[in-house]
Write a structure and sequence with these properties.
The structure holds two protein chains of two kinds. Chain A is mostly helical. Helix content of chain A is 31%, strand content 4%. Classes of the chains: A mainly alpha, B alpha/beta.
Chain lengths: 97, 491
């Protein structure tokens, strides 16, 4: 592609990815990402006109099954790995005052 | 250190009561305790001994499965009920899965003994095992060198004789490249051959589990125990390949006819150690196979395409780590936003963050078509390249990786150079094809691997050709410090 790419807006991307970077790590993350994107841009030279995207290596159809109950309730088992729970709920900081 | 032996040697020693599975497990645990490679993140001594006892009962009750009582190690990406599963990350440092991965359940049913969980690049993102939160792994051939990655702990453990077989996973080369760098045999089966259920997701359209073993015969035995349809994996393949059970029961049969072996010229262009792979070609030609030059014209685009697709899928898959339901949670979160951001920033290492950012960028508004769709289009072209050559040849022979094991720290500051390690393994992953790496020589005392690539679901061709090569070579039997792999159990 001929036009110059805009500089990567790292704070915006970090926010989308729910990651924090301090000023030092932000600069190195941005520099690394620029190098990675420049490497990736080499693929723009490939002519893909009329080529259908391949999203799955076997290019197969989604398998369907009967809508039957196959799992049993295991709330206690699954919540045993949670950082904080109360009465079967996951605890998070207050969202609504 | 006990003798290093194949899975089959241990299997017959157990069958003939030369050794009990408890004794065999104790010997392995003692060897692992003296290990200096950092191959293991968790050693599961108590549960291993309990499994060994159970295996003895299974054998007494007439179990004839060849793997009953044989020890193995799982890459720490497979969920194991009751044993910590870290995925090499601080994020999952204390995560004990409430269920077993399908692969783990199958091997437990066969009566195998899980010695522990092997070290790996964090979330399987890396080619050197240096991104692990639990420290780097040394290559047993030279402790200053990397073992490759991401299944570096599994590869080093087999090469060091800590275990005869370990599970691995391969997204862009993570079984084959460490197998090559450590001098062992590694098989990445066809996408869909082995269930992904309970295998922590990195890039779901690429991830595939497989065995890492001393030789092709052991790989066939493991594959038959690991493969099969699983309704819990929506991309699990429904196949009826009778050869899987036949290979496990009777060993790998001789090839029925000479093969036509393709040499993709794009894989030989920049090769610094060409004489080694040429020697493999010569050995195969002597067995009557015909070698022909072929071309896979979109090979150069594979690395960019892979890093778009794998990054996009990783950023999506790893959004589940939010500090709420499982995994690392920051101290004293001030808000939900703060909980997400600090938990993720503290829990993930640099390489994982790099991949998440790459995926976030290529999937973001305005870039989606230029990157993600474009990459998927080229993915089809790469897949069609393989279809075209497989119309004329049975199998492909290539180097597994561009170089032998590199020094620790050598590439860790240069992500782009690290990504080039995957040059010869990534195209196969994008096309979902099976590929096997087998030892084929040494450069400066470090092992080198040759890669065989077959059409989808033709692991039988890979295993047949590798077994034949291994009958006419002994690279796969060589181990560090002059040790050799024994095909008989030596008490």
């Amino acid at each position: 592609m001929s036009e110059a790419k805009p500089t990567i807006d790292l704070p915006h991307l970090a926010n989308l990815a729910r990651l924090n970077f301090d000023s030092d790590s932000s600069e190195s993350a941005r520099a690394d990402l620029e190098k990675i994107i420049a490497m990736i841009d080499a693929m723009q030279a490939v002519n893909t006109e009329g080529v259908a995207p391949l999203s799955h290596p076997l290019d197969g159809a989604q398998r369907l099954r009967q809508d039957l109950v196959t799992e049993t309730e295991q709330r206690d088992n699954f919540q045993s790995t949670a950082p904080a729970t109360s009465e079967g709920y996951y605890l998070v900081p207050r969202v609504v005052d | 250190m006990p003798g290093i032996a194949t899975l089959r040697a241990m299997s017959s020693a157990l069958k003939n009561r030369v050794i009990s599975s408890t004794e065999l497990t104790q010997e392995h645990l003692a060897t692992i305790a003296a290990d200096k490679t950092n191959s293991f993140i968790t050693v599961a001594k108590d549960s291993a001994l309990a499994q060994a006892k159970r295996a003895e009962q299974m054998r007494e009750q007439g179990s004839s499965h060849p793997l009953t009582g044989v020890p193995l190690a799982h890459k720490d990406i497979f969920c194991t009920k009751g044993i910590t599963t870290t995925c090499g990350s601080r994020m999952l440092e204390n995560f004990v899965a409430p269920y077993d991965a399908h692969v783990v359940a199958l091997l437990n049913q066969a009566g195998m003994v899980t010695l522990g969980k092997t070290n790996m690049d964090e979330f399987a993102m890396g080619s050197s095992n240096e991104s692990s939160h639990f420290g780097p792994v040394s290559n047993p051939w030279n402790m200053d060198k990397v073992p490759g990655g991401s299944s570096g702990g599994s590869a080093a453990a087999v090469a060091a004789g800590l275990v005869a077989c370990a599970t691995g996973t391969d997204t862009g080369g993570s079984i084959r490249q460490p197998a090559a760098l450590c001098g062992i045999t590694g098989l990445k089966p066809t996408y869909g051959r082995i269930s992904r259920y309970g295998m922590i997701a990195f890039a779901s359209s690429l991830d595939q589990a497989g065995p890492m073993t001393c030789d092709a015969e052991d790989a066939a035995l493991m594959l038959s125990a690991m493969a099969g349809f699983d309704s819990k994996d929506s991309t699990s393949a429904q196949r009826q390949d009778a050869w899987l059970a036949d290979f496990a029961e009777h060993g790998i049969p001789d090839l029925e006819r000479p093969l036509k072996i393709g040499l993709p010229q794009e894989y030989y262009a920049d090769l610094s150690n060409g004489s080694i792979i040429e020697a493999v070609q010569k050995t195969l030609a002597q067995q009557g196979h015909e070698l022909v030059d072929v071309s896979l014209p979109h090979t150069q685009a594979a690395i960019p395409v892979y890093y778009v697709i794998a990054g996009a899928e990783a950023s999506t898959n790893l959004s589940r780590y939010d500090g709420v339901r499982f995994g690392h949670r920051c101290e004293n979160p001030q808000s939900l936003e703060d909980l997400y951001k600090r938990s993720r920033s503290e829990g993930f290492g640099d390489e994982v963050k790099r991949r998440i950012l790459t995926g976030t960028y290529t999937l973001s508004v305005g870039y989606f078509d230029a990157y993600y769709i474009k990459a998927q289009q080229i993915r089809r072209l790469i897949s069609e390249d393989f279809n075209n050559v497989f119309a004329n040849v049975d199998v492909l022979l290539t180097p597994t990786s561009p170089t032998p094991a590199f020094s620790q720290g050598q590439l860790s500051d240069d992500p782009i150079a690290m990504y080039q390690q995957d040059l010869y393994t990534v195209p196969t992953s994008l096309a979902g094809l099976p590929a096997l790496s087998m030892p084929c020589g040494f450069v400066d005392g470090l092992p080198v691997g040759a890669q065989l690539i077959a059409p989808a679901f033709r692991e039988d061709v890979l295993l047949g050709l590798a077994a034949q090569y291994q009958k006419h070579s002994d690279w796969h039997l060589q181990r560090p410090n002059g040790f050799r792999v024994s095909k008989e159990w030596v008490a």
